[in-house]
Amino acid sequence: MRWLRSLRPLRAERTWRASLSRTTFRRDPSAPVPVPLPTPRELVDVLGVGRTEIVEGRALTLLSLERYRESDVVTFRIARMREGRTFASPELRIAFEPAPESEPRVWSMGGSGGGSEELVWRISYAIAPPTPRGSAFTVVVTAIEWHAHEGGQRRIESVEPGAWRFAIIPP
Question: How many folded domains does the chain comprise?
Fold first, then answer.
């Protein structure tokens, strides 16, 4: 069995090389380097919103708006009954009114949730550039997509269209 031990490092090295070759930084070297997403670092203030909107029987709560110098973070709470045996996670489609001059970049900052019969999630999204200071605007959730992960694949289990509107009026 001594020969078996000598093959293990080669297999590990081959696996490592295979995973490294799958890591592609840019497929097209002539393409421009993407601008990195800004990391919210310097907190300016926090607006506790705590407003729940119901669209077609589905409740969505905007808990807070954290304002950072680099970007903003909105935190939502959502609950729904589990459908079947899957454990779906939400992904929100977010827009703003009035529409900003430049299209904001919105990305997930993470979330957590679970439950046996009812799924309860808290999920945060970052927005860059930051929302306008001192002026009122509305955060609009245009849809909630529920994603399920099975067999290493991600698929959309269901989509809840709607227009949950949260007016933000700074103090």
Answer: 1
For residue 135, name the pLDDT band (cuts at 50, 70, 90). confident
The answer to the question of residue 74 being in a domain is: yes
Sequence-distant (6+) residues with CB within 8 A of 93 are 141, 142, 143, 144, 145
Residue 76 sits in which domain range? 43-168
Task: Answer whether residue 91 is part of any domain.
Answer: yes
pLDDT band at 19 (very low <50, low <70, confident <90, very high): very low
**Cβ atoms 114, 103 nearer than 8 A:** no
CB 92 within 8 A of CB 141: yes
Give mean pLDDT, residues 34-56.
Answer: 91
Rounded Cα–Cα distance for residues 12 and 17 (Å): 9
20 three-state secondary structure = helix
**Which secondary-structure segment (H or E) carries 39?**
none
**Residue 128 neighbours by CB under 8 Å, 6+ apart:** 37, 38, 70, 71, 72, 104, 105
**Given the DSSP bridges, would you call strands 89-97 and 137-150 parallel, antiparallel or unpaired?**
antiparallel
Whole-model pTM: value is 0.76
